[in-house]
Amino acid sequence: MGNICGGASGQALDKDGKPLTKVTRTKGTPKAAAGGTPAAAIPPPATGEAAGGTQPQPAQATEVTPSAEGATAPAAAASVVPAAPSGDSGVKKLKVYIIFYSTLGHIEKLAREYKTALESVGDVEAHLFRVPETMTSEQLDAAFGAAPPPPPEDIPIIDVTQLPSADAFVFGFPTWFGMMAGQMKTFFDATGALWQAGALHGKPASIFTSAATQCGGHETTLLTSVTQLAHHGMIFVPTGYAAGAAMFGIQDAKGGSPWGASTIAGLDGSRQPSEVELEALRVQAKHFGAIAKKLAA
After folding, report:
1. Which residues contact residue 295 at a Cβ distance below 8 angstroms, ignoring those fewer than 6 apart?
2. What total number of domains does the chain contain?
3. Distance separating alpha carbons of residues 115 and 98, to the nearest angstrom
């Protein structure tokens, strides 16, 4: 047998005298199979590979970097609300009929002022109407000593059949001997069919008046007129003392009461509504509008 212990160099030799190659094995590396290539020379399998197939790779987290202008997440479909058609707020307006009788023009002026203040509440649609005259020109001339001004052409005469279409009412009339004028009373007397049908039941109402003097029936006129509303089942909305200083001052003669606004016309009708009386009326209109909207909701 040949020397396998080594030559002069001390190199280990095989049986044929050829030097043996020393294989350095890293700890944990499997030994080469007999007669095969050392295990270190065999390339390791790719990650996830196994004998007989390929393992699915785990999903990799991707970092999203917003753009310079900022990324915007898509809005949820449920949060998209269709826009209302142009000019339509989608809110039903409260329809109020302001119905009045005016002999010398004082009640007409209060009615127009009431309409402006009432519509300032918002979502309120106010319409002015007047009741028919029941007295002849001769009778009016004898009653007031002069012919009253012509009725306003821009305000139509109301018909009782129109009343059910309103949501709320405002009635204005002068006081004659401590009660509403006969023209307005005749108008109410013509509503018998509506009373039988309950057509006005539950609808809110407000009232105002005028008188020749400070003690000429401001309160009694409005107080006695509430009976007309009660028989129809309407809801009377008084003003109380919501106008505050406009009601409490005693420096000047003025109209007004907790039942509703009023003005002093004077014996010849020459006095016009004062700013204090108009302010109390505006407060009443806004107060009534707010209450009527709540009742109609």
Report:
1. 168, 202, 204, 235
2. 1
3. 7
- What parts of the chain have a pLDDT lower than 70? 1-90
280 closest CA partner among 123, 125, 110, 95: 110
Grouping H, G, I as helix, E, B as strand and the rest as coil, residue 56 is coil
- The owner of tokens 């020393």 is 22
Q: What is the pTM of this model?
A: 0.70
**Parallel, antiparallel, or unpaired: how do β-strands 204-211 and 235-236 relate?**
parallel
Rounded (10°) CA dihedral 145, 150, 156, 158: 10
CATH number of 140's domain: 3.40.50.360
For residues 115 and 98, the answer to whether their CB atoms sit within 8 Å is: yes
- 38, with CB counted inside 10 A (0-12, 13-18, 19+), is middle
pLDDT value, residue 168: 98
d(CA 161, CA 170): 17
Asked whether residue 5 is assigned to any structural domain, the reply reads no
Q: Is residue 24 part of a domain?
A: no
Residue 41 burial (CB count, 10 A): 9
Name the phi and psi angles at 160, rounded to 5.
-60, -25
Residue with tokens 């949820």: 76
Q: What is the rounded CA–CA span in Å between residue 200 and residue 229?
A: 9
The secondary structure element, H or E, covering residue 294 is: helix 275-296
Quote the tokens at residue 248.
């409490």
